[in-house]
Amino acid sequence: MATRNPQQTRERLLQSAFQEIHAHGFQGMRVDEVLHQSGLQKGAFYHHFGSKTELGYAVLEEQIKPLVESVWLEPLSEIEDPVQDLPRMLDNLGERIPSSMREHGCPLNNLAQEMATQDDGFRERIARLIDQWIDAFSAVFEQGKIDGYIRDDIDNRAVARFMVAILEGCIGVFKVQHSPEQWSACRSQIAAYLATLRPKGH
After folding, report:
1. How far apart (Å, rounded) are the C-alpha atoms in residues 29 and 15?
2. Class of residue 93 by CB neighbours under 10 A (exposed 0-12, middle 13-18, buried 19+)
3. Burial 3-22 (b: 16+ CB within 10 A, else e)
4. pLDDT tens-digit profile of 41-98?
5. What's this model's pTM, rounded to 2 decimal places?
6. b/e map of 104-126 (b: 16 or more CB within 10 Å)?
7. N or C: which end of the chain has fewer CB within 10 A?
8. 52, 31 Cβ separation under 8 angstroms
9. Cβ contact 10:54 at 8 Å
10. CA–CA separation, 99 vs 117, rounded Å?
11. To which H or E segment does residue 163 belong?
């Protein structure tokens, strides 16, 4: 007789729910379909989650947050010269993202667009994760100032907010058009913008 593994069961539910939310949105996700995809029964769902919303929060915290960290936050921690290294990071983005992101876009941005005005629990969790992303960018620009790659008059946090907004917008347009030219245009214009942050004579 197989030994039950509650943590493994929970992980199966979260992975299936993430796939459904990414493809169809939180409101389009059906618990019955999550159970079908995970091969589990309703009893397993209610053992781990009190509601569909509670499941959605867990997907955001335990599936989407680690994805954002691996795709964006961890690579940002390795940046030395933001002007040169950030465009190169974008060039390597395809190696870090799952194939589902090419089709369905950024799951964080999707949820922000769908749920931030519908549910405070989603809005607060999404805001915290976006703030972490902004913090990571801000730290890159602050260190860039210290190392002489970025002008001293630059507002680190304002630039960091702008970069997050630009990237999410670029990914959103790419999701609609599936156009390599669109991504190339975004990459080239981000690189041109970053070049304006250089100190004079650098």
Report:
1. 13
2. middle
3. eeeeeebbebbbbbbbbbbb
4. 899 999 999 999 999 999 999 999 999 999 999 999 999 999 999 999 999 887 788 8
5. 0.90
6. bbbbbbbbbebbbeebeebeebb
7. N
8. yes
9. no
10. 28
11. helix 156-177
Single-letter amino acid code for the residue at 52 = K
Quick check: helix, strand or coil at residue 27? coil
With beta carbons less than 8 A apart as the criterion, state whether 114 and 29 touch: no
Residue type, 80: E
Nearest to 147 by CA among 197, 196, 191: 197
To which residue do tokens 């970053």 refer? 194
- Look up residue 12 and give its two tokens: 């199966």
Residue length of the chain: 202
- Nearest 5 degrees, angle CA 97-CA 182-CA 115? 60
Query: CA dihedral defined by 129, 131, 136, 138, rounded to 10 degrees?
Result: 170
Structure tokens at 98: 């799952």
